[in-house]
Amino acid sequence: MRLTVSVTDLRDYYSCPRRLWIRRKTHIKQDQGLSFSSGRRFHSILHSMIDLLSRALKADLPAKLIGTEIYLRREIVGADICLRGKIDVLRKTEEGYIIQENKSSDPPRERGIRLKDKLQLDAYAFLIEGDERYNDVPIKSGVILYNDLIPRVVKLESYNVEGMLENVKRILNCKTLPEAKPNTNCTFCYYHPLCQVLPKKGGLTANQIKELPRILEHSLLVQDVPVPLASK
Q1: Could you report the per-residue pLDDT of 98-138, keeping only the tens digit for each?
Q2: Is the torsion defined by CA of 167, 172, 158, 112 positive or negative?
Q3: What is the CATH number of domain 33-160?
Q4: Parallel, antiparallel, or unpaired for β 139-145 and 151-154?
């Protein structure tokens, strides 16, 4: 059966394969809340600015605006995988396409861009390369725009994407929770509280994990203390 993978799945896999598995296999939704709403507003404002600039400057723009929020899909021949994603902004110069990703978050302090953001642009380049509508010129570069609105040019490496898709497929084909590999992003993850009560070595099925909130609620109401859910 063909597996559909999103660019968000690739980002999650890079950050934490366990996070990817929990989100895709249990369908426990993230509380998008204020962060999600702010991100949508940020994208909307940027797209409005791009439209106004293109109308005002027309030919004086350094690159022609091809479109915003462009949905793309690409079938991976022989792998039973379909990658899908949405490009924020696509521009075109004589040298090639420029793929732009808008982020409402602060830029990283330790380096110019976050590696998972670069991976996202690599995946978009991979999608563009597989779409005959955009094969008239090569892909020139990527641009990431954080909330400081300073464009950061990125050299794209789409050749890494296909191998990562195979890794995503391997994780999603696992019937049980993968082993935990804590990193610096854990405390910012929506699933962090859940992950803390799951066995570090994994092994639970998706159905067992989906039962945990009910078990925890019952233990708090009936016994007034949480029941150990799994051995760590």
Answers
A1: 999 998 888 887 768 999 999 999 999 999 999 999 988 99
A2: negative
A3: 3.40.1350
A4: antiparallel
Q: Would you say 169 and 81 are in contact if contact means Cβ atoms under 8 Å apart?
A: yes
Tokens of 200: 């570090």
How far is Cα 65 from Cα 173, in angstroms, rounded to an integer? 39
Mean pLDDT (the chain, rounded): 81
Residue showing tokens 């792998």: 79
Average pLDDT over residues 45-62: 49
Is residue 66 over pLDDT 60? Answer: yes
Neighbouring C-beta atoms of residue 86, cutoff 10 Å: 14
Closest CA to 24 of 38, 4, 42, 51: 4
Can you give the three-state secondary structure of the chain, one letter per residue?
Answer: CCEEEEHHHHHHHHHCHHHHHHHHHHCCCCCCHHHHHHHHHHHHHHHHHHHHHHHHHHHHCCCEEEEEEEEEEEEECCCCEEEEEEEEEEEECCCCEEEEEECCCCCCCCCCCCHHHHHHHHHHHHHHHCCHHHCCCCEEEEEEECCCCCEEEECCCHHHHHHHHHHHHHHHCCCECCCCCCCCCHHHCCCHHHHHHCCCCCCCEHHHHHHHHHHHHHHHHHCCCCCCCCCC
Supply φ then ψ for residue 75, to 5 degrees. Answer: -85, 135
Burial 130-145 (b: 16+ CB within 10 A, else e): beeebeeeebbbbbbb
Q: What is the pTM assigned to this prediction? A: 0.79
